[in-house]
Each structure stands twice: as structure tokens, then as C-alpha cells.
Amino acid sequence: MSDTLPLSIQTNRRMEKWIRFEPNRTVRLAVGKVELGQGNVTALAQIAADELDVDLARISVLSGDTEDAPDEGQTTSSQSIEVSGRSVRLVSAELRARVLDRLARRLNCSPAELSIDDGVFRRGDAPTGHDYWNFAEAEDFAEDIVGTATPKPHEAYRYVGKPMPRRDLPAKVTGAAFIHDMVRPDMLHARMMRQPCRGARLAALDEAALRRAERGEFRIVRVGDLVAFVGRDETVVQRAAAVAPLHARWDNVVPTMPEQQEAAWLVGQTSHDRVLGTEAPPVTTNVVSANYSRPYIAHASIAPSCALAEYRNGHLSVWSHTQGVYPLRAALANVLGLSQDAITVRHAHGAGCYGHNGADDAAVDAAVVAMQIPDHCIRVQWRREEEFGFEPVGPAMHVTLHAALDDAGKPQDWTAEIWSATHVQRPSSGGNMLTHEALPTPPPDPRPTDPPEANGGGGTRNAFVLYDVSVKRVLHHLVLRSPVRTSALRGLGALPNVFAIECFMDELAERAGADPVEYRLSILSDARARRLIENIARRCNWASRGAAGSGRGLGLGWARYKNRAAYAAVAAEVEVDQEVKLRRVWCAADAGLVINPDGARNQLEGGIVQAASMVLKEQVRMEGDGITSVDWDSYPILRFSEVPEIDTEIIHAPDLPTLGMGECTFGPTAAAIGNAVAHALGTRIRDMPFTRERIAAALLK
Amino acid sequence: MAIELIVNGRAVQVSVASTTPLLDVLRNQLELKGARYGCGLEQCGSCMVLLDGEPIYACSREVGTAAGGRITTIEGLGTTDHPHPLQQAFLDEQAGQCGYCLSGIIMRAKALLDHNPSPTRGEIARALDKNLCRCGAHPRILRAVEKAAAMMRERKGA
Are residues A360 and A405 in the same domain? Predict the structure, then answer.
């Protein structure tokens, strides 16, 4: 049994790590996954309430705490409900069974005679005088979790499957709610001056000139090439940091060239190359090929990264909006040379991160400064230009697809060739913390790896087509050096790969003289996928889709995220004049058993808006010292009046296991817009973003 | 230098340089954390508060230029126990994901509804165009503002 247990339980076998009955008749659920704005903590509470038979309001959740919560690694890859949710269900069911078994022995009855009503135990219709709070004892928590208790059937759920309001939202619409808002005793504000690039050396910092420019009181903390401005007055340190680069001289800066900001630059760079899938040589007759690309993309959190750290009595306490408190603790121990036991990391709410942004780096900043100024709480907040300029960005990708067609114009041999830098440079995956590289003994250059296929891959995520193609292969060129640091951004390679595949499908359909929906269905056996495509085609009135080139377009795309998580199909209606106006979007998703349908809908639709923003507008620009798109004017995102009407339908499938759905609309949205724009223009744009310049160029073709 | 402000209906005096950003004064001197730092560039709207009823960017507004003015922050609208209709509507519609942008958006929406109690969806979207949301909660936010407008009209009529 144990080998089928979710990883979260395998690494956290102790019951008391997960659940505790508190004296005030609440239940404390502790989890390692953290709230990043996606609503997972509310959903996990729903699961526990149902399995334990207590009112949802009694469940308090502690999430992300290296002292008191289980280690569930990172909150990534749409795994919170699939993995942590499954764990919470098994753990809760097992604790309930243990307590009831012991009560049955005490009462000399069968556990089947016992029931629980909001934590109070009954035997038949009669009260037993016992409940979790007066009956549960150490014995119930003594054994390791084995995961053999049978969870409830979905028909018995009271909370799971029903829309539940998010627990964190009331604070967020009334006042203080974020790590940025925390105030600790002896707090000092800090701002950083960053190394322009890895290996750059601070040749000189003209402190006198800097202090003439900013006359308020602040300390300058310098450790190697790391500089922090620290003081009681946040305004002063912010201003000092803003002007500091004017008074600093750096050696060894490697300039960035504008052509490096384009995905096309990747082709021909030094790379680790591998072939996945069939080893048979590709068929070379009747081959159709096309190139697609996405540039570097910023996470572009609406809040700059923030962290608090204090070093007192030989112990370092850190608060961070990290995706993983335990991995961050390991990274801090490595950077600072402390033992992990001497460090506590606690999660606090930040703005949405959508992957690996500056959160962890800011935590290391705060910790390094805290080690220099013990017995104070050091609060580091990044500046806006720092967030844009130094977060690890989502890597650019260039994708070339080749399909050898049979006589009916259907693909029989498929090759996806992918060029991309790494999609994950977390410290646990061979990457470096930004601050570490500025310290006196910087770590070796990062080791370029990509997530293994078992975890869904990185550049290869969703690269294998799910259509009925008998021979498929993926050629992956992991480009070893990227002009800027890259790491995980929502969906990793899924967005560019699904964009490429689903746009190519429309192109193959057109070549075969077939309707894109009919063409897809003719080579697709997966019943769940077919159902979504049929659903979306009906709802967007696909049958009345007009001829191409009218300026109005309708397009669709679908995918199963990571080829094994949730399914989503998306249709988009656009108008294209000088730019693309996204009018309406329809979405259908199948994620098996959905815990909180309103939270799921919020994620599906958020993914649609964010993907649309990326396809239509976004590109990280670089030149000279590095990233030059360091504000919202140079890195525009979709605004309220540009957001389409969205009509979402979640397929009811409560008998099927929950599938992670936080990223599933990303690729399909990009593809649907790509196809809708091609339909509107009568010619195709294959490179994101769809700027005015690209539209004009496409029309001139 | 002592500067007088009327914040959420209460007269306060702060001793800071007149060039200090209003946002820093609200957050650090007055411990009102609802207005949030996002960019410091008047580009994202996370710091939005009302000055004499008009939406302003607190991040770049020097406090000296707001002296004597009536400032309203999200804390001045309502509390979790007694939310303003806008806050209630945002909770009813679950209009947010990470929530960082929401206080600025709610303040801009408050200014809109004070001037125009029955805005169309297009008018709401245009009013909120200067506020950024990265999570993609826009459709919900638009619905929440529409709902709040209806609640406020009802309340006025009652």
C-alpha cells in the first residue's frame, strides 16, 4: 500500500504533523502547500471537514511552516489538490477511523454503529458523551499513517464539490493581509542594490556622494558584492536604493544584446540535446513544417517581493511568500552556512507569483542582512524595477513542428523540435539564489537541467501530441546559456507547446480542406477530450463560423495539462484591426472531482486572462545591462477594458480522481487566440506576442 | 514638520518631511496597511486612496500637498464585521485571487460610484483601466462593482 501513498504522506508519516484537536473545539489542519491566491487552503479545509465530520468553520489551517507543518515541497505544478488534497483526505479518514475504532472497543460495539456530527460521537441516535476534543488521545496519533482507511464516497460529502468562499479574502478587502503589512519588534527596513549580472564585481560605491543625494539616516551593509541600505525610515532607504546605482561602478558586466530577447536567438546556441519517444527515423515524404515561438515572459507579480528575517540567540526566523518553506530553509542553510535546525521559515501571503519569482531571493536578502544586524527584524522589499529586472523570467521557446501526412492529410509521423533554456532554476534543481551569487564565495555556475518527464517535463511539457498519431518524437535542445536567469512560470513549456500543436492542427486541417473541429475529432480517441471539444464547439456556435479574412475570427484549442492533469478546451472570438480585440471566450474543463467549483472557475478564468495577456502583449525586453522592461509601461499587461467576456463550464465528473487544474487553460487559450486571429486575418501569426507590428507584417504577406 | 490630515474622518498630525510619499505616511506612521505599494510610478493603482473624494496615487503623492485634505483608505470604508457594500460585493462575488490589487481597485470603484451610481459595465471597465490585476480576476471584479452599485442604489432608495 505504501508505495501508492501520495508523496506528501510518504515524507510525513506522523499523524500529529497534520491534524490536532485544539482545546477551543477547533481542528488544526497543517499542510505544506501554501496559499498563493489560488484558493487551495480553503479547498484543503473542505476535504478535512468532510472526512472528519466536523463543521468547516472548525477547521483552522496552518500552511507553510518548518516548525509545525508537514514538508510538502513546493506549491507548484497544480499539485495542491491532486497530491496534498489526496493526502489530507487519507490522513483525515485514517484519524477518524482510529478514534472511532477505539471508541467502539470502549463501548463494546461495532464502529459501524457510531457516527459523528460536527465532531460529536453518537451511537445510533444516542449521544455517547464523547467527541474528538474529550476523547482523542496520544494513542490515536502514535502510529505512522498507513493510508488504508477508506475515504467517504462523494455522495456523502457536505462541503467537497460545493462552492465555498475563500478564507483569506475578507482581510484582503479590508486592510492588512500581506507579508508587506507585517510589523515586528525592532524592525528595520532594507532595500538592495543588485549585481547587474552574475560575476559582476562592485568596483566602487561612492558613499559620500550617495549620502549627499539622500540625507536621511541609513546604514550601508555590504557583504561581497551585495549592498543593502538599512534604516528605521522606509522612505529614506527606498530613496537611497533608487539613487545608489548612479554612484556605483561595476566591473565584469556582461552586456546583453537586443537580439537575445527573441526566441529565434536560441536556435544554434550550445545545448544539451536529447530525443524522446520513438527512435525510428522520421518519415520524410509529404512532410509539413512550421515554426512557433514565445519570448521571455515575466511573472510580473503585482507586488514586489518582500521578506522578513531576524537572527536572535543563534536562531534565524524568516517570513516569506515562498512557494516552499522547506526548500527555502535548505537554500538558506546552504547560503549562510547554518544548520537547518537553526532556521525557521514561515509562509506569509504575498501577491500571486505564478511560479518561481523573486520571493525566495528576497528572503535570502533579508536573511543575509539579518545575520549582519542581529536582534532586529530586517524587512526587505524589492523595488518595482528590481522585481522586473531580477526575477527569474519564464524562458523563451522556439518550437518547430513536422508532420508527415498520409493520403487523407492526417499526420502519421510527428516531430516536435524544441529550443529553450531551463524552465526550473530553483536551488533544489541546480539553480542559484540571486543573493548567493553576490556573496564573497559565490556558488558555481548553475547546472542547467529541466524538470524530468516524470514531473511533466519543462520545455517538453505537453510536447507530445495527444492525437492518434502512430509515431511521435520530441527533440529537445536545452540551451545551456541564457542571457537572463530563467525559471518556472505557470505551465512551463505547456503554453508554447500547446500553442504550436493546436495552431498546427488548424493549419493541417486547412491543408486537408477540413473543418478544424471535424479534423481534430477524426484523429482523437480520448473520450474526455472529444466531449470538451464538442461542448465548446456547440457553445461558441462553431457551425456558423464564417469565411477567413473578414477581420472577425473564431478559433479554438484544447489540451490535457502535462498530458495527465486536467483537460481544458477554449474557444476565442476576436476582432482584428490594427490590434487584436478579444471579444468572447468559452471554456470547458474536466478536472474529475472538483473540490471548490467556484475556486476552480476562478483559476480557469484567471488562466485565460493571463494567457491572453501574454499572447497579445507580453515580452521581456533586454539590452545592455540586462532586462530593460522594468515597469508597467514597458511591460504592459491586459487591462480591464481589454478583458473578454468569459463563459466557463466545468464538466461534472465526481466519480473520477481530482486532476490539477490551475494551469490547464493556459495553452488552450493561447492556441484559441492564435487560431482566431489567423481566421480573422486569413493569414497566420506564429510568434508571440501579437503586436501591431506583427499584425501589419502578416497583412503585408 | 507637523502635517495635519483628516484620515478616514479622524484628524491626525504626522511629523514627517513634506516630501514623504503619502503612502509611506499611511502605512508606517498611521499603520493603515490597506493601501499597498506596487510600483511607485502611478502605473498599477495598488496604492489608490481618495483625497477629497478623488482617487489619487498615494505612492507618489507628497504628503505635504495633501495637508488639510480628507483622505479615505480602504480601512475607512468598512471592516470584516461591517463591510461597505463594495467590500461585501467583492466577497459575495469572490472577486479576487491573490487580492493585492483589490484595495486600490475598490477605492477607484468607490470614486466612480460616488459620481455615477449606475455605471455600465463598459464605464466600470474604463474607470478601472488604470488599475492592474495580474491574476486575471477582472470578470469577477467587474461583476462585483456592478453588484455593489445595485446594493448602494437600493440602500439609498430605502
Answer: no
In this structure, the strands spanning A645-650 and A580-590 are parallel
Chain B residues touching residue A42 (CB < 8 angstroms)? none
Residues from chain A contacting residue B39 (CB–CB below 8 Å): 384, 631-632
State whether A525 and A655 are in the same domain.
yes
Mean pLDDT, chain A, as a whole number?
A: 97
Residues A204 and A132 in one domain: no
- Contacts with B, A 462-521, CB within 8 Å: none
Question: Which residues of chain B lie closer than 8 angstroms to A174, CB-CB?
Answer: 34, 74-75, 77-80, 83, 87
From A390, A406, A431, give the residue that closes a domain. A390
Our CA-based measurement puts residue A574 at a distance from the nearest CA of chain B, in whole angstroms, of 17
> Same domain, yes or no, for A407 and A382?
no
Q: pLDDT for A12-71, tens place per residue?
A: 999 999 999 999 999 999 999 999 999 999 999 999 999 999 999 999 999 999 999 999
Q: How many domains does chain A divide into? A: 3
Q: Which residue of B has its CA nearest to A182?
A: B33
Calculate the CA A203 to chain-centre distance.
38
Report chain A residues whose CB lies below 8 A from the CB of B98: 36-37, 302, 349-352
A165 close contact with B: CB closer than 8 A: yes
| Distance, CA of B128 to CA of B122 (rounded, Å) | 10
| A322 within 8 A of A363, measured Cβ to Cβ | yes
Cβ distance of B124 and A172 shorter than 8 Å: no
Cβ–Cβ under 8 Å, residues A552 and A573: yes
- DSSP secondary structure, A259-289, as one string: GGGSGGGGTTS-EEEEEEE--SPPP-SSEEE
pLDDT at A603: 98
Neighbours of A198 (CB within 10 A): 16
Distance from CA of B93 to the nearest CA of A (A): 9
Q: Domain span at residue A308?
A: 179-252+300-390
The verdict on A183 and A71 lying in the same domain is: no
Q: What pLDDT score does B156 carry?
A: 87
At which of A119, A134, A169 does a domain end? A169
- Spatial separation of the C-alpha atoms in residues A402 and A411, rounded to whole Å: 9
Q: Does A64 touch chain B (CB under 8 A)?
A: no
Which residues touch B37 (CB under 8 Å, ≥6 apart)? A180, A303, A304, A381, B23, B27, B46, B47, B59
**Does the global pTM surpass 0.95?**
yes
When scoring B18, B31, B72, B98 by the number of chain A Cβ atoms within 10 A, the one with the most, hence best to mutate, is B98
State the fold for domain B2-76. Answer: Ubiquitin-like (UB roll) (3.10.20)
- Identify the CATH number of the domain in which residue A218 sits: 3.30.365.10
Q: Do the chains contact at B139 and A643, CB–CB below 8 Å?
A: yes
State the ipTM, two decimals. 0.98
* Residue A342 pLDDT class (50, 70, 90 cuts): very high
Q: Is A177 on the interface with B (CB under 8 A)?
A: yes
Q: Does A434 reside within a domain? A: no
Confidence label for A1 from pLDDT (cuts 50, 70 and 90): very low
Amino acid A630 reads V
Same domain, A243 and A210: yes
Quickly count: other Cβ atoms within 10 Å of residue A442's Cβ: 16
- Do the Cβ atoms of A384 and B96 come within 8 Å? no
Res A562: pLDDT: 98
CATH class of B85-157: mainly alpha
Among the partner-chain residues B41, B83, B128, the one whose CB lies closest to the CB of A640 is B128
| A627-633 average pLDDT score | 98
Q: Does A156 touch chain B if contact means CB atoms closer than 8 Å?
A: no
Q: Is the same domain home to A478 and A577?
A: yes
Minimal Cβ distance to A180: which of B37, B74, B129: B37
A119 shares a domain with A148: yes
Residue A168 in contact with partner chain B when CB distance is under 8 A = yes
Model confidence at A430, pLDDT cuts 50, 70, 90, reads confident
In the prediction, which pLDDT does B158 show?
A: 63
Is B43 close to A181, i.e. CB distance below 8 A? no
Sheet holding A114-117, edge to edge: A114-117, A120-123, A126-131
Residue A655 has pLDDT above 50, yes or no: yes
